[in-house]
Amino acid sequence: MFSQVILLASKKGPNGSTPTLRPREVRTQAALATISDAAPLAVDISESSSARYPDAVETTAYFVAAEAMAEAGRRSASHATVGVREQDGRLVVTIEDDGAERISALGHLADRVGALGGRLELGPTSLRAEIPCA
């Protein structure tokens, strides 16, 4: 899973910026571990899929998880739980954190998921993306 992206830089850039990304072969567990290691908070991975999906699906799922972790850090979260599983022909990414309530809409993620025919649901401290696998 997440076959198109691998983290290449250190956890934080010189200005505290997010790490640089570039295409590369990575499996689900490794991609989630990369997100966890780079996140500004503690991350538990509650579930992950070992199946492979189309590149666009995997890449979108990766960016949803990575951006949700960065956004949780901006909301002063200290812990998050990430899950990735297939359900009814969709790759479902769930993230819950203990930060302050979300005030931004994360519209760019909704657009990215929607471009593949999926949907993004946001709660005050949770996120659920459903991305069609086909």
Shape: globular
Ends: how far apart?
Answer: 14 Å
Tell me, rounded to a whole number, the average pLDDT: 78
Low-confidence stretches: 1-26
The CATH topology turns out to be Heat Shock Protein 90
3D structure, described in words:
This protein is of the alpha+beta class and 134 residues long. It has one domain: Histidine kinase-like ATPase, C-terminal domain (Heat Shock Protein 90, 2-Layer Sandwich). Helix content is 29%, strand content 28%. It is built from 3 helices and 7 strands, in the order E-E-H-E-H-E-E-H-E-E. The chain has helices at residues 28-38, 55-74, 107-114, and strands at residues 6-7, 21-22, 42-47, 79-87, 90-97, 119-122, 126-132. Strands 3-4-5-7-6 form a 5-stranded mixed sheet, with helices on one face. Strand 4 (79-87) and strand 5 form a beta hairpin. Helix 1 runs parallel beside helix 2. The longest helix has 20 residues, at 55-74. The chain starts with 5 loop residues before the first strand and ends with a strand. Residues 1-26 have low confidence and may be disordered.
Topology:
Layout: E1 6-7, E2 21-22, H1 28-38, E3 42-47, H2 55-74, E4 79-87, E5 90-97, H3 107-114, E6 119-122, E7 126-132
Parallel strand pairs: 3-4
Antiparallel strand pairs: 1-2, 4-5, 5-7, 6-7
Brief overview:
The protein is of the alpha+beta class and 134 residues long. It has three helices and seven strands; from the N terminus they run E-E-H-E-H-E-E-H-E-E.
List descriptors.
single chain, 134 residues, alpha+beta, Heat Shock Protein 90, five-stranded mixed β-sheet, two-stranded antiparallel ribbon, 3 helices, disordered N terminus
